[in-house]
Every structure is written in structure tokens, then in C-alpha cells.
Amino acid sequence: MPEDTSATSQVALAWRQYRLERRLFWRNPSAAFFNLGVPLLFFALFGAIFAGDQDALNILVPGIAGMSIVSTTFTALAHNMVALREQGVLKRIRGTPLPGGTYLAGLALHAITNTVVQIAIVLVIGRLVFDVDGLRDPTALVVFVVVGVVCFASLGVAFSHLIPSSDAAPAYVNAVFLPLIFVSGVFYDPAKAPGFLVDIAEILPLVHLVEGLRGAMVTGAGVADEAGSLAVLAVWTAFGVVFAVRGFSWEARRA
What we know:
It is built from 10 helices and no strands. By secondary structure, it is an all-alpha fold. The protein has one domain. Helix 2 (29-49) packs antiparallel against helix 3, helix 3 (54-86) packs parallel to helix 6 and helix 3 packs across helix 9 (205-219). The longest helix is centred in the first third of the chain and has 33 residues, at 54-86. The protein starts with 6 loop residues before the first helix and ends in a 9-residue tail after the last helix. 38% of the residues are buried. The model has no long low-confidence stretch (mean pLDDT 88).
């Protein structure tokens, strides 16, 4: 029988792959912890430090939301794509009847699900524990979450092309992730940082994602009010997509 390439079939295959990725994810406690637990651990620690300081909490909650997006997209995909490439999984998938795009769609849906779960947890904790509404502008929140996911997912895949092996992946990813979250005002008001750090942060995408989320979750600023932040994120997204596609390889690198 000829292979069914209809849209319905592709969606069904992507859904199956997504369900498989969810099962594999929960069978790996360390992956679940680093994807979902680390941002919440920072949330608990800094929430305890800033307890009673509402201004600081108004900065922390959207900051953790932005950090969660980076953790579940950029960090997770950079790790996973290197592992799948170097272990030969991508090459084997390429040789099966499962379309490559369908397989990657399942991976993407898995990352998106983790992001949605993280954002939901942050919203609930922020409202119940830290008195941060989180839904001052739901439309702006959805827009910045979607743009943030696309931006950092593409950057994660693009960055995976620079990582030579699975063993090196944690060092490479943390060398970007940790400075990024501390420079970008996840835990503090970036305007109060030294001038050179402010200048660096303004170039990077995370500070603009956090600013957009802060407007949506705390101040009620709409999408139009944060158009500048969206523009910066769009530029980084275009950069990420171009290099994610250009550098993608189904085969492991030769030593």
C-alpha cells in the first residue's frame, strides 16, 4: 500500500510521537527535574528572600516565567538535539517511514507542553502566594509566551549545532543559560544593574521577553505598549530559525 501522506495522517503520527515523548520524559526523573523543577526551585528560594517586598515580587514572578520558557525550550532542545544526533537516533528516524518533519513536530509539541505547564504553575503560585495577578492582559501574555517559545526553541536548535558531543552539552548550555538569566533581570530590576550589564542585557532576547511578560502580568501593558520588545524578539527568532535550519544534520559528527 502507498504511504499515507495526508494531513490527517501527519497529524496522527505527530500526536503519537508526542505521546511517546511525554512517556519518555516522565520515565527520566532527572530530565523532568531540570526542565520543570529548577525554575520552581529558584522561584521558591528568591520568593522566600523577597517575601514582603511586593515590588521585588512583581519583578520576580514574570522573571521566573521568562526563565521557565528558556528552560523548557532553549535548554531542553539544545540538550536533546545533541543527544539524538550523536546517539544516532536522528539518523535512524530518517531511515524509517516516519517523516522527519512529523518526528520534529512531536518533539516541539512536547517542549510546548512543558512550557504551558510551567507558565500555569508560575501563574498559580504568583497569584496565591505572592499576590501577583498574572493575568492583567491575557492577550499580551499569550502573545509573548508564543513568541518566546518560538524564539528560544529555534535558538536552542541552532545552538545545538555548535555542541560537539553529548558529554559537552551540559557545559555548553549552562555557559549560556546561567549568565543569561542573571544578566537579564530574572531576579532583580535590570535597570538597577551596572551600566555595562544593562547594555549587554538590552542586546539579548530574554530581557525583552521578561519585560513583555511583566507588562502582561503586572502592569497591564498591552502588546502595542511592548512593540519594541516584540521587535527584538522577532529579530532573534529570525536569526534562530535561519541557523537552526542551515546547520541541521540528521547524522552524528565525525571525530
